[in-house]
Every structure is written in structure tokens, then in C-alpha cells.
Design brief:
It is a single chain. By secondary structure, the protein is mainly α. It has a single domain (3-246), classed as CDP-alcohol phosphotransferase transmembrane (TM) domain (Four Helix Bundle (Hemerythrin (Met), subunit A)). The protein contains nine helices and two strands. It has helices at 3-9, 17-34, 41-59, 64-91, 96-124, 131-150, 180-189, 199-211, 215-246; strands spanning 161-163, 169-171. It has a two-stranded antiparallel sheet with strand order 1-2. The longest helix has 32 residues, at 215-246.
Length: 252
């Protein structure tokens, strides 16, 4: 197996289609280039945070050119954010401080990005103070989604794991004869553009809306979709739990 294929196998999947097809092609190649250097996963995390904060300085200016410049920096920061975990898994460099740093950096970036965007919008549109409530709701929704993503609301007792050819633990395949319709639904759901509004979908939404200068609409979109997903995601977890208990996986 080539080194690039090994790195690709270390990418966290399944993920949203935007991360998989838009951001991973860059992050995987970055990891390939630095795989034999002294660059550490934590250095990539800090680099991602620094790039995002610099992008926020441009967001805070509020004019179109500054927003586009900030957008480019923020999008590159997400590529680094993807690469830090891929590099850690490729080198087997796991550490409690690394996981903590990654989580803290993500939360700092979220607050800085949305605050600076709102600040810049009001700076250019003095009458646009109505954006602040939307900014608060958007941040609340994102933090709530992150919390939902960190917990398992419905644990399946005796969940079976198996190790794939790259030594990575994965869930076992469903039992033979399991509900084919359910599996097909899961595969089709993976192609939905915003199926859970996880982090890659959030960055892609930012890319689309801000590229056209739709700052206010972006906050409304994140607020509404984020709150809807805060209801939808636990519901999906419950359905998966019911299906998993009815069709337990079999070890290979």
C-alpha cells in the first residue's frame, strides 16, 4: 500500500460530503507532504487557530474585499483542522492534550468567527444591529450541536468492533439479512448536503454565503438550520438505536 493510501485510510469517515470531496483532497495531500517533517499535529491545530483568528480580523472590517480575504484564510484553516487528526492517526501520535487543544481551538474559532462577522456587518451597516440576536442564536445552536456530537444518547450494549486492514477499530458489519431498506436509506442520507450540520457543512455554508456577501442571511441560515438539527439529530440517533438493538452486528 502506498503512503498516500495509508494516509487516506487514516481520514475520519464517514463525514459530510463537503469535507470528503472538497476539504480532504487538500488536507490529505498536506499530510503527505509533511509526513516526514518535524511538524506535529498540535502545530497544525495551532496553525489552524492562528489562520482563523487572522481571518477574523478581516471579517471585522466588514467590507466585501476584507470578507473575501478572511474567507480564504478561514477555509484554509479548516483544511489544517482536518489535517491535524489525519497526521495524528497516521503517526499514531495520540495525546490527551492534543484532543483537548483541538476542542478548545474549535470553540475559540467559532466564537471569534461569528462575533467578528457580526461586528464587521454592523460596522458597515450601522442600522444592522438586528444581526446580534441572530449571532447569539447561531452560536447557541452550534454549541448545542457540538454537545450532541460529543455524547452517545443511546448506547448499544455489547457493540461489536473489528479492526480493519489498517489497524483502525471500526464497527462490525450489520448481521446478514439485516434490513436492506434501512442500509440503503443510510447510504442515500450520506449524500444529503446538510444531513447533520456538522463542522464541515458549517464551513461550506460559510463559503457559499460569504462568497456572495450574504452575511445577514448566513446568520439566519445557521440559526434556523442549527436549531432544527438539534432536534433532528437526537431523533436519528434514536432510530439508529432501535434498529441496532433489533439487528445486532456480527463479529467477522
Amino acid at each position: 500500500m502506498s503512503e498516500f493510501r495509508k494516509i487516506n485510510a487514516c481520514a475520519k469517515r464517514p463525514v459530510d460530503i463537503w469535507t470528503n470531496y472538497l476539504y480532504y483532497p487538500f488536507s490529505l495531500r498536506l499530510v503527505y507532504l509533511i509526513r516526514n517533517t518535524r511538524v506535529t499535529p498540535n502545530a497544525l491545530t495551532l496553525g489552524s487557530l492562528l489562520l482563523a483568528l487572522v481571518g477574523c480580523l478581516f471579517y471585522a472590517r466588514g467590507d466585501r474585499a476584507a470578507i473575501v480575504t478572511g474567507l480564504i484564510l478561514v477555509q484554509v484553516s479548516y483544511v489544517l483542522d482536518c489535517a491535524d487528526g489525519q497526521l495524528a492517526r497516521y503517526r499514531q501520535q495520540y495525546s490527551p492534550i492534543g484532543g483537548w487543544l483541538d476542542q478548545v481551538a474549535d470553540r475559540v474559532k467559532e466564537f471569534a468567527l461569528y462575533f467578528s462577522l457580526a461586528w464587521g456587518y454592523v460596522r458597515v451597516h450601522p442600522e444592522g444591529g438586528r444581526i446580534w440576536p441572530w449571532a447569539m442564536v447561531a452560536l447557541f445552536a452550534l454549541y448545542l450541536l457540538e454537545y450532541l456530537g460529543q455524547i452517545e444518547m443511546f448506547r448499544v450494549k455489547g457493540r461489536v468492533l473489528q479492526v480493519n486492514e489498517n489497524g483502525v477499530p471500526v464497527e462490525a458489519e450489520p448481521a446478514p439479512g439485516a434490513d436492506d431498506a434501512f442500509q440503503k436509506m443510510r447510504r442515500w442520507r450520506a449524500l444529503v448536503p446538510f444531513r447533520g450540520f456538522i463542522i464541515g457543512e458549517q464551513y461550506f455554508a460559510q463559503l457559499v454565503f460569504l462568497a456572495f456577501g450574504w452575511v445577514y442571511s448566513f446568520f439566519v441560515f445557521v440559526s434556523v438550520l442549527g436549531l432544527l438539527m438539534a432536534v433532528y439529530r437526537p431523533l436519528v440517533q434514536f432510530i439508529k438505536h432501535r434498529h441496532a438493538t433489533a439487528n445486532p452486528p456480527q463479529p467477522s
